[in-house]
Amino acid sequence: MLTVLVGVTAALVYGSADFLGGIASRRISPIRVTAIGAASGLVALFVAEAFIGGRWSWEAILYGGISGVTGAIAITLLYACLAIGPMSILSPLTALVSAFVPLMAGVFRGERLPLIGYVAIGIALVAVVLVGFVKEEGAVRPSLKALLMAIGSGSMIGAFLILIDLTPDDAGLVPLIANRAVNGFVMFAVVGVLALWMRRRARSAHPIGRAPDTEAPVGMLSPGWRAGLWIAVAGGVIDATANALLLVGLRLGELSVMSVLTALYPAGTIILAAFVLRERIAPVQVVGLILALIAAGMLAVA
To answer: How many Å is the Cα radius of gyration of the chain?
Structure first.
């Protein structure tokens, strides 16, 4: 029961973080949002680790660090596709793929559930699809580029889940700290490389004198960048909180169960999109939310 409660809570918190990431990406860029979120999340985890504690080991740092690379790729692709939209389709697709990868890994590793547990997992996967399904005429359809980014993001999120599950039980928040440190390093390095490339491109386009301000490589000076910055900071802290909940859930239960439960995070994204962006929730999406609750209850019984 406790595993299910932690998993569902983590899903809702993940959904909130992804919503903020998508909003911030419309104001600055997905790469900058990921880098800023990694930094703010790292600070939050260091503060929490001072109270929670955990054993530092090479195994915890290694798996956590590798998961930071997969996480950087996953979150960048996720924020990029959410910025293109529509959130209500791309977020569930990412979640479906992210659940399938660790689910198969858990099965191959010998994890076994009672029959009701597998039925619940099947219902949960159906719920993920229904929550993101938009049936009305004139509904926005995602582009092929956005769909491919969503699938790629889901695969990398699945790899992240597997790697975090492999970390030692006594590591506390150490794997997540390693994850955020590597994640932040990778993303800030990418931001730096892109800034240098854009500066060189601007100079090539304007060889005489200084390039106009409109050509400057610091895209964060665009209108609304300051709001996007603080949204990205908040998203990073919320995402770090979700990661901590995920880690607790993995320690309490099975990888296959937690992967499916956290894959329900589109519910959080869609609920926020409905209230903040006034996006409509179709009847079929309501059915998906109800099925998600039913699946969570069945998993609690299992």
So the answer is: 20
In single-letter form, the type of residue at position 161 comes to L
Model pLDDT for residues 60-105, shown as the tens digit of each residue: 999 999 999 998 888 778 878 877 877 767 877 887 898 889 988 9
Integer angstrom CA distances of residue 142 from 58, 83, 147, 154, 194:
42, 11, 7, 16, 27
Whether the per-residue pLDDT at 214 is higher than 50: the answer is no
User: Is residue 32 a contact partner of residue 105, using CB atoms and an 8 Å limit?
Assistant: no
Q: How far apart are CA 18 and CA 86, in angstroms?
A: 13
Separation between Cα atoms, residue 266 and residue 84, nearest integer Å: 16
Could you give the CA distance from residue 167 to residue 247 in angstroms, rounded to a whole number? 10
Instruction: Give CA angle at 39 (96, 267), nearest 5°.
Output: 25
What is the C-alpha separation between 187 and 183, in angstroms, rounded? 6
Single-letter residue type at 52: I
Helix, strand, or coil (residue 260): helix
Q: How far apart are CA 187 and CA 182, in angstroms?
A: 9
Half-sphere exposure of 274 (CA within 13 A, CB side): 15
3-state secondary structure of 302: coil
What six digits make up the tokens of 54? 């955990």
Mean pLDDT score of the chain: 84
